[in-house]
Amino acid sequence: MTFSKAASDEKAIATIRCLAADVVAKSNSGHPGAPMGMAPMAHTLFSRFMTVNPAHAKWINRDRFVLSNGHACALIYILNHLLGYKDLPMEQLKAFRQIDSKTPGHPETGHTEGIEVTTGPLGQGFANSVGLAIAQANLAATFNKDGFPLFTNSTYMFTGDGCLQEGISSEAASLAGHLKLGNLIALYDDNHISIDGDTACSFTEDVEQRFLAYGWHVSHVLDGDKDLEGLYKAIEAAKKVTDKPSIIRVKTTIGFGSKQQGLAATHGAPLKADDIEGVKAKFGMNPKESFVVPEDVYAAYKQIADRGARPTRSGPSSSRPTATTADDAIASRKLSETVLGKLADAIPELLGGSADLTGSNLTRWGNAVDFQHPSTQLGDYSGKYIRYGVREHAMGAIMNGLDAYGMHIPTAGTFLNFVSYAIGAVRLSALSHHRVIWVATHDSIGLGEDGPTHQPIETAIALRAIPNLMFWRPADGNEVSGAYLVALQSNSIEKTSKGGYVLVENKDADITLVASGSEVALCNEAVAKLSDKGIKCRVVSIPCFSVFDAQPIDYRLSVLPSGKPILSVEAYSTLGWAKYSHAQHGINTFGASAPAKELFKKFKMTGDDVAAKAQHVVKVFEGQTLVSPVELEAKLLAY
Amino acid sequence: MTFSKAASDEKAIATIRCLAADVVAKSNSGHPGAPMGMAPMAHTLFSRFMTVNPAHAKWINRDRFVLSNGHACALIYILNHLLGYKDLPMEQLKAFRQIDSKTPGHPETGHTEGIEVTTGPLGQGFANSVGLAIAQANLAATFNKDGFPLFTNSTYMFTGDGCLQEGISSEAASLAGHLKLGNLIALYDDNHISIDGDTACSFTEDVEQRFLAYGWHVSHVLDGDKDLEGLYKAIEAAKKVTDKPSIIRVKTTIGFGSKQQGLAATHGAPLKADDIEGVKAKFGMNPKESFVVPEDVYAAYKQIADRGARPTRSGPSSSRPTATTADDAIASRKLSETVLGKLADAIPELLGGSADLTGSNLTRWGNAVDFQHPSTQLGDYSGKYIRYGVREHAMGAIMNGLDAYGMHIPTAGTFLNFVSYAIGAVRLSALSHHRVIWVATHDSIGLGEDGPTHQPIETAIALRAIPNLMFWRPADGNEVSGAYLVALQSNSIEKTSKGGYVLVENKDADITLVASGSEVALCNEAVAKLSDKGIKCRVVSIPCFSVFDAQPIDYRLSVLPSGKPILSVEAYSTLGWAKYSHAQHGINTFGASAPAKELFKKFKMTGDDVAAKAQHVVKVFEGQTLVSPVELEAKLLAY
Asked: Which letter does DSSP use for residue B169 in this model?
């Protein structure tokens, strides 16, 4: 195909630029410069290449568009408005960044139809798009047959300087190059401006050479402000390269058309009213009118939308709970391996992986095939196990992309401590309602000799505090299975595991011990020791705070009733446990290097230590009738 | 200088290899393969180039050695043993990874003399070394005069495949190339093996080309197992390149000498006894003896140590508290800017910066000069302000390196939400007792229109749970100043701010409102509203949990006394506040995009909302005498 310019091209680009200025000005907040600068590349991509179906936004074989520089989201809202997505009538463009609008400050999938992934935190979208491309490649290799190509879509991604500076994009780019993902095309908005000003102040690497080093197809368009034919040809050429991901460096002018074009001033604040008038005059629009779309521009975008309006089937919903599974160091990761093996046979959607800790996380089931380009002879694209390399942050964001595609259930492993490296992606997973399963092994001081650099003390509370994320810390095989069950069954938390339950009941108990994971066993030990001293105990296991919190109050009170004291026991920071207990036993320092058994002694985490602490707690509260924190919380909420 | 082989070279390398096998075998835990493989490059570097003074380990102009692949720490423990560091007699090599030893599972600075930075979490050491190199360059530019070169040391860093896969190393490498740090030399142990096996499964990028793209001097040694002359020449050539950092790719064989050499089997588990005997026989050592160092090897390392034994001055201690300052979105970052400006005049050690948010974080004082290579004409090496680019994780680890050098007080800014990207470095900062100051602006929903992708809800609790880290959330100018004061004054927490205090006292109060940051003002508003209803309030501000917790119990009880109910108010996850309060008011979901004022309404964070909640709390607890959680905690601790 050759490029032929349409009469509506310049007008459409002018419309996008003027709308971007209007949208940000009306909300008096946001980023006009990047959408104005990227308008030509966006219009060229959408008008000549993108196949989507706004009437069936979830059509599974649609091309995916990811705006990794998500602060430029006025651009995607405008494009999707022009395409006719129902969430984006003109009123929504006018409600940009306002309360309860469909046009939040950064794009959120699930919140706004037509937004594939949640972007804005820089670099996330870059890695998401690698996940979207892997998903497509895997489905194509699995289901496409000669003459019946079911999965043929491309993934297009826009990225800015900021994304390319973030380490997560380096991780994702290196992996994408290794995997030879020819279905992924990135357009790099090289506008030479970041918030601190000219990128000369901190970002002077040779980006093209860097991506060549990763094994990408690399090209450039030197006049991204005007050269539509150059943009067209670069994308066309990239599409022809099927064994490498592509990146096209597009030199653009930020805020093109503004009096301040090319300057950081156009990056993160609205243009002034007179400047906007000037922009409109320059582009042949009426300077006195705002939020204007000429009819022929709507018509051109109607044609684009029609291109995708063919018989479709809708994809599965991607609004499913996020889940994290934390396994203890000794046994439960083996239990997890067993469960994963059985699940993989029953659930072909599972797409596993590990950040170079396969043998430690036990995340690879027996008959798994690696997801690799066939030329490597290490696997093929129908494989269901991804070797992520030591790239935790990209792994997290790639899993988000895999889920966003709509046909996979991604699971992947690393040490719990290194989920911290990826927490930027994990919180977006939760915000975006991605069903993503982390297998986070080797928790707390139980990890032993690797020492405090590898022993998470604060990670559990950090994950427990993320809304819409289930952090599980199973104590035995049943809890491992329960965690997977809840993670896999969408929105049916109530019907399955309850997140917390009574393990040892005793109607005459003097104290309740509440714990998770390995420390449940310590509590059981302590019960016997305390019994010898005439102290009667109940034991409660709470493997998952958020699932337990979702249970009816009567159930929660049956688990943690008022009356006698409750003592929490966990080999982590005690912070947060006061919501379930009157006293806390834990570790509020960093760990140390030694065999696990000795560390549990050093940090007072033995059955004897728990018994001694419990005895003290019973004494302190002797004769008092205590209100359960659960009862108190319920009372305090009801007003 | 030309290379001449010494008689002791081969013997020293054999000694290091056999000791590495012995050390890991005795502890039955650890990583023998990498130390065995890196022995020739380590010996060449130490014997021919490194200048250190084991008797004065903190001598400021020593060469810095960073083992970024910290799991190979048997290597550095062995080298430092040979050099005669007092923390590392032979008994300590035999106590590898055991309780309370000086040889923990991964190297910890502050814990073991001669360890420059804490490494193991992959990629951290790489970025630390960039910080060490920046520190040297800055001091040299500031203090060296013709004929009086005070600061001349080099920073040498070993890195493995894993470090290079982590995004943090990409961030740091790109910045180091930009800054043209000719005093930094990395040796890449290219052994083609990671935990999942051959790097062919996930890491096939062209590392040399990637570093050329970053602007580094790049070379390689193809037989790193034996070619000492090649190693020598490569390092020598790298030292001559003074306007670029250098990386030397050294092809080695993991576990060289073992029956399993070249295989992942030698990576993370001890070699078998018979294999170790074979290694010793192969290298001319007695197979039946362990932990042997020939006298001429000790003698050779004595000579190395003597090279650094010249008149020295000791550097300042680097054991100082870590601090984080969180400023609210409107005013306190401006207060921070004022304080920083005054501090910069008084404290030349301050080395500021921001991850491309200078204008938002307000971290750059008025007369600051950028730290830039003079050829850029954007600053010079004596400059005190670093443009980190959008590289939060590297920024965190580089600050750790800056502090590790011993002469600077690093401060740097980003949004609080993006401290999450760097939390892997932040926890090591705390573990290593680095005095590092983060200026983390734009907290919670107060950030407004940027929306939930940028609004931290869970970050405060995550940081509060990190041991040895002060997370401050100041409510006014005094608290901003107090936070800086505590952060800057080593180990004098008691003498300065108390972390929490009574803002509004009322002897007849019906309730205490406890808050931090912006919500302190809401509590003050609520006081007036409640007064109209006949409810009397106290208001307490706790800007820093860990500093408050360090106060005497009498003081803490005077702030949060038993008797009447205590309600916490904070626009974050309520998790953790039960340690100070009977009831909590907060945000346990993600935020949203809108002007801040509207968000505070939507999330029930107005003076009216706080008053309503307080009124309810008073009613629920009417007639009860409550025990302060602070009193309870003290009682429970004393057993």
From this structure: H
CA B80 to chain centre: 22
Domain edge (last residue) among A307, A338, A370: A307
**Which amino acid is located at B28 in the chain?**
N
Residue A55 shares a structural domain with residue A190: yes
Chain B residues touching residue A465 (CB < 8 angstroms) = 457-458, 461-462, 573, 575-576
So what's the pLDDT on residue B458? 85
Query: What's at A510, amino acid-wise?
Result: D
Active site residues of B: 392
Confidence of residue B310 (pLDDT cuts 50, 70, 90): low
Q: Which residue is it, tokens 């979208």?
A: A125
Are A254 and A132 members of one domain? Answer: yes
Find out whether A593 and B106 touch, Cβ atoms under 8 Å. Answer: yes
Looking at the fold, whether B155 and B302 belong to one and the same domain comes out as yes
Report which residue type is found at A321: P
Query: Domain holding B252: CATH number?
Result: 3.40.50.970
Asked if residue B149 and residue B271 are part of one domain, the reply reads yes
Choose the closest CB to B27 out of A213, A449, A632. Answer: A449
CATH number, domain containing residue A633: 3.40.50.920
Nearest to A468 by CA among B222, B590, B284, B248: B590
The pLDDT value given to residue A278? 97
User: What are residue B389's phi and psi, to 5 degrees?
Assistant: 70, 180
Instruction: For B468-514, write each residue's pLDDT tens digit.
Output: 888 888 877 777 887 888 787 755 444 447 888 998 999 999 999 99
Query: pLDDT grade, residue B361 (50/70/90)?
Result: confident
Neighboring chain A residues of B390 at a CB cutoff of 8 Å = 122, 161-163, 165-166, 194
Q: What confidence tier does A480 reach under pLDDT thresholds 50, 70, 90?
A: confident
End-to-end CA distance of chain B: 66
Phi-psi region of A215 (alpha: psi -120 to 50; beta: other; left: phi over 0): left
Q: Compute the average pLDDT of residues B571-586.
A: 93
Tokens of B183: 């005093």
B345 in the same domain as B205: no
- The kind and range of the H/E element at A463 are helix A459-464
Which residues, 6+ apart, have CB-to-CB distance to A358 below 8 Å? A364, A387, A413, B195, B196
Same domain, A484 and A506: no
Write out pLDDT tens, residues A539-556. Answer: 999 988 888 998 899 999
B466 and B508 share one domain: no
Burial of A295 (0-12, 13-18, 19+ CB in 10 A): exposed
**What pLDDT, on a 0 to 100 scale, did the predictor assign at position B436?**
93
B2 part of a folded domain: no
Q: Do B108 and A450 touch (CB under 8 A)?
A: no
User: Which is more confident, A457 or A33?
Assistant: A33
Residue A182 has pLDDT above 90, yes or no: yes
In a domain, A2, yes or no: no
- Name the average pLDDT for chain A: 91
DSSP B301-327: HHHHHHHT-SS--BPPP----EEEEE-
Q: Which domain holds residue A467?
A: 322-488
Q: Please indicate, yes or no, whether residues A206 and A110 belong to a single structural domain of this protein.
A: yes
Position A316 pLDDT exceeds 50 = no
Is residue B126 situated within a structural domain?
A: yes
Q: Nearest chain B Cα to A458, which residue?
A: B465
Q: Is the pLDDT reported for residue A100 higher than 70? A: yes
Interchain contact, A214 vs B215, CB within 8 Å: no
From A443, A463, A488, give the residue that closes a domain. Answer: A488
In whole numbers, what is the pLDDT of chain B averaged over residues?
Answer: 91
Whether residue B433 has pLDDT greater than 50: yes
- CB–CB contact A457 B450 (8 Å): no
Nearest CA-CA distance, residue B582 and chain A, Å: 8
Q: How many domains does chain B have?
A: 3
- Nearest C-alpha in A relative to B374: A201
Task: Identify whether A494 is part of a domain.
Answer: no
